[in-house]
């Protein structure tokens, strides 16, 4: 596999939205878990660009605007016609007192608090604020950010959808797309079920799905991914390592879905690792490449906080995975028998 390009998320628009199959996730550049110096952030973005990555994703939440502001500096160096940029809407940042700063997993952040707002005015405000922080009018894709229930509960999700479809949020997205101010719309979420719910209501181009279709999780094969193929909806796959364990293996302290991995997951990852070791192939490379075996998945976007991490992502993306490894994973029941793999794409080509 190489850094190939494909047209995606553009079936309803006049201009194609091109994505490299390996993209760049901007959450770490918002100082996720630890502070990153501005110079290191810029070097990381340059490393991604120099490696041939041309799809970059960020969001207001990432460092309460810090990730977008760091992207702004890099965008002055990058060719805007050669790259695709996405950010997210629905979280408006407000100035606040120090004690009101939204508690997040980001450190050394601006003095801001987050207000969820999926109304017409909220979407437009979020979009304009992101343009200002990014220093550009060229945002290609807008994703509704965490519109699903998550840790907030079902009432939170229901209220967000009411704002989106009753109070004009979707109208705002549609207007921006129809006016050519953006090329594609979707949602950046942690569950595939909310994506199905959104598709029942309206016309979306794609979804940024964190995890949920990985070596450890293939439930979307049953309904959701076939629906994406039927509706010509593209998936951008974030979190290919299930928040860590598919990168680290079943080590002490390994994390799955942002929490310490339970024993059943640890056991399964040990078995996955054993098959990979038998084929002299790193588990992390198999995890990164696996989602792209499905036609609905257009790109994977692991995060990186250093140039070395970018180069590692590229190396493992380009690592050759033996066809027999995929077969062994299926024969041992470690991935579903009906899960398409990258070797299936190679065979079709």
Concise account of the structure shown:
It holds the Pfam family Aldo_ket_red. By secondary structure, the chain is of the alpha/beta class.
Features:
alpha/beta, 349 residues, single chain, 14 strands, TIM Barrel, two-stranded antiparallel ribbon
Total E-strand runs: 14
pLDDT < 50 stretches: none
> Which structural class is indicated by helix and strand composition?
alpha/beta
Strand portion, in percent? 15-25%
How many domains in all? 1
Overall pLDDT confidence: 94
Mind telling me which CATH architecture this is?
Answer: Alpha-Beta Barrel
Taking all Cα atoms into account, the compactness measure Rg is: 19 Å
By CATH reckoning, the class would read Alpha Beta
In CATH terms, what is the fold-level topology? Answer: TIM Barrel
Strand order of the biggest β-sheet: 3-4-5-8-9-10-11-14
Shape: globular
Discrete helix count: 13
Give me the CATH superfamily: NADP-dependent oxidoreductase domain
User: How would you characterize the largest beta sheet?
Assistant: 8 strands, parallel
Helix content: 25-40%
Following the backbone from N to C, one meets helices and strands in this order, namely: EEEHEHEEEHEHHEHEHEHEEHHEHHH
How far the N terminus sits from the C terminus, by CA atoms, comes to 12 Å
Enzyme class: oxidoreductase
EC number: 1.1.1.107
Organism: Antarctobacter heliothermus
GO molecular function: pyridoxal 4-dehydrogenase activity
């Amino acid at each position: 596999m190489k850094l190939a390009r494909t047209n995606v998320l553009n079936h309803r628009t006049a201009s194609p939205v091109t994505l490299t199959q390996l993209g760049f996730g901007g959450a770490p550049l918002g100082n996720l878990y630890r502070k990153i110096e501005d110079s290191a952030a810029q070097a990381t973005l340059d490393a991604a660009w120099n490696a041939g990555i041309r799809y970059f994703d960020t969001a207001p939440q990432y460092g309460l605007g810090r990730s977008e502001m760091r992207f702004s500096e890099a965008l002055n160096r990058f060719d805007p016609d050669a790259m695709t940029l996405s950010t997210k809407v629905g979280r408006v940042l407000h100035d606040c007192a120090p004690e009101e700063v939204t508690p997040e997993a980001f450190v050394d952040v601006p003095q801001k608090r987050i207000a969820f707002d999926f109304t017409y005015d909220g979407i437009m405000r979020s979009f304009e604020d992101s343009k200002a922080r990014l220093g550009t009018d060229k945002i290609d894709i807008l994703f509704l950010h965490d519109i699903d229930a998550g840790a907030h509960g079902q009432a939170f999700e229901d209220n967000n959808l009411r704002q989106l479809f009753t109070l004009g949020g979707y109208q705002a997205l549609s207007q921006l797309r129809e006016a050519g101010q953006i090329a594609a719309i979707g949602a950046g979420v942690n569950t595939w079920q909310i994506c199905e719910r959104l598709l029942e209501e309206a016309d979306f181009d794609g979804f940024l799905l964190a995890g949920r279709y990985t070596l450890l999780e293939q439930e979307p094969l049953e309904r959701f991914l076939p629906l994406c193929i039927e509706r010509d909806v593209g998936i951008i796959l974030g979190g290919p390592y299930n928040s860590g364990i598919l990168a680290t293996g079943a080590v002490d302290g390994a994390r799955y879905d942002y929490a310490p991995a339970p024993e059943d997951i640890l056991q399964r990852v040990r078995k996955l690792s054993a098959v990979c070791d038998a084929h002299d192939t790193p588990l992390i490379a198999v995890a990164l490449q696996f989602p792209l075996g499905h036609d609905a998945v257009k790109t994977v976007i692991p995060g990186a906080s250093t140039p070395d991490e970018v180069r590692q992502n590229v190396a493992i993306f380009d690592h050759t995975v033996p066809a027999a490894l995929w077969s062994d994973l299926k024969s041992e029941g470690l991935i579903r028998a009906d899960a398409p793999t990258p070797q299936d794409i190679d065979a079709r080509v």
